[in-house]
From TrEMBL:
It comes from the Bacteria. GO terms for biological process: alpha-amino acid metabolic process. Its cofactor is pyridoxal 5'-phosphate. Coiled coil: none annotated. This is Tryptophan synthase beta chain-like PALP domain-containing protein. Residues 14-293 form the Tryptophan synthase beta chain-like PALP domain. Keywords: Pyridoxal phosphate. It comes from Hyphomonas adhaerens.
Length: 348
């Protein structure tokens, strides 16, 4: 394990996030599903790790910086803005119109500049964000952290999130989604260095093509922020290809509201998609299994816009049909509580 000063010297409450166990009854089998609660990081998401890791490693390399700029779908920008505010560094976050109201408010509340990038004809929103962030860096001299191409993004997960999770292993499978592809590539690189039997599975909506071609040709708009990506990740190319489970967004929204009604979880939308992917995988197993889900953020980022934005985006009928189908599945889940994580994780 390479010693990482970025991890060891982090002055914020980032990392050591809880792992919460659920029992899942499917047919005659009882499985264990573990939720890595990245919402418990100080600024509320898994991207806290990436923002701190990239910023601190950059400062370590080039010395103090006055201002930074980067592109983000929302959570990374929120974390970076909050960290920069505490450190007295100016921050510009370039996002898209799809940013959640919560993240937009947090970024502005932290005193950062929020720029919404308009895609040119034929350009994805993700590519537009990267282009505009690069233009701003050239114009005002801010340091462009470039999370979407920066190898420090997957390295944050290879050296921090993954060892922390695997210290609580073994797992039969680990599930996550991709936006920049940083988490998935970081976990794949960790697995390559620490071979074992655990399967890595990406859970994404049909039109995502972050790592593998989309059956629908990547043309439909994504409806949930950071649940998949319409741009091939700069970190693609890991071998072997990750396992892929396609999970539709109507089912994800239905499971989100059901999990809340049953008080089973407070994770965000992409995380619920990941949990559904894990349930789908478990339903195909013939022995009791133990699996973990990387749950990127919390429900507070979505609750205000569930009725006004997300359910209309998938369609009320599709949402209701998914709720009827998933109600017995969610009713088969039982919250057990936090798993004791070992001191080994703390050392890494
Ligand atoms: C809600 C949410 N889920 C999942 C991800 C995926 O993370 P990555 O960018 O590492 O692929 C992100 C990243 O921004 C996110 O904000």
């Amino acid at each position: 394990m390479p010693f990482s000063t970025a991890v060891a010297s982090c002055p914020f409450k980032i990392g050591h996030t809880p792992l919460t166990a659920c029992q899942v009854r499917i047919g005659d089998l009882t499985h264990e599903l573990l939720v890595k609660e990245e919402r418990c990081n100080e600024f509320g998401s898994v991207k806290d790790r990436v923002a701190w890791y990239i910023l601190s490693k950059t400062i370590e390399k080039i010395g103090p910086v006055k201002s930074v700029v980067d592109a983000s779908s929302g959570n990374y920008g929120n974390a970076l803005a909050c960290i920069c505010q505490r450190l007295g560094i100016g921050a510009t976050i370039v996002s898209s119109a799809s940013i959640s109201a919560h993240n937009a408010a947090q970024i502005k509340g932290a005193g950062a500049r929020l720029v919404i990038a308009e895609p040119k004809p034929g350009e994805t929103s993700n590519a537009a964000r990267m282009r505009v962030a690069g233009e701003i860096a050239e114009k005002d001299g801010s340091v462009f952290l470039d999370q979407y191409s920066n190898p420090l993004n997957p390295a944050a997960h290879q050296n921090w999130t993954a060892p922390e999770l695997f210290a609580a292993g073994p797992f039969d499978a680990v599930f996550m989604t991709s936006s920049s592809g940083g988490t998935s590539r970081g976990f794949a690189d960790y697995k390559k260095a620490h071979p074992g039997h655990t399967q890595l599975c990406l859970v994404e909506p049909e039109s995502s093509c972050a790592f593998l071609d989309s059956p629908s040709g990547c043309t439909d708009k994504l409806k949930i922020p950071a649940f998949g990506s319409q741009r091939r990740s700069s970190f693609a190319g890991m071998k072997p290809d990750p396992g892929m489970i396609r999970m539709d967004e109507a089912a994800t929204l239905a499971a989100f509201t059901l999990l809340h009604e049953h008080q089973l979880s407070k994770v965000g939308l992409s995380s619920v998609g990941v949990i559904l992917g894990a349930l789908d995988w478990l339903s195909r197993q013939d022995t009791p299994s133990r699996v973990a889900c990387i749950c990127a953020d919390g429900d507070e980022r979505y609750l205000d816009e569930i009725q006004s934005r997300y359910i209309p985006a998938v369609g009320q009928q599709a949402y209701e049909a998914a709720r009827a189908r998933l109600a017995p599945v969610i009713a088969g889940m039982r919250l057990v509580g936090p798993v004791q994580q070992t001191a080994k994780a703390a050392a890494q």
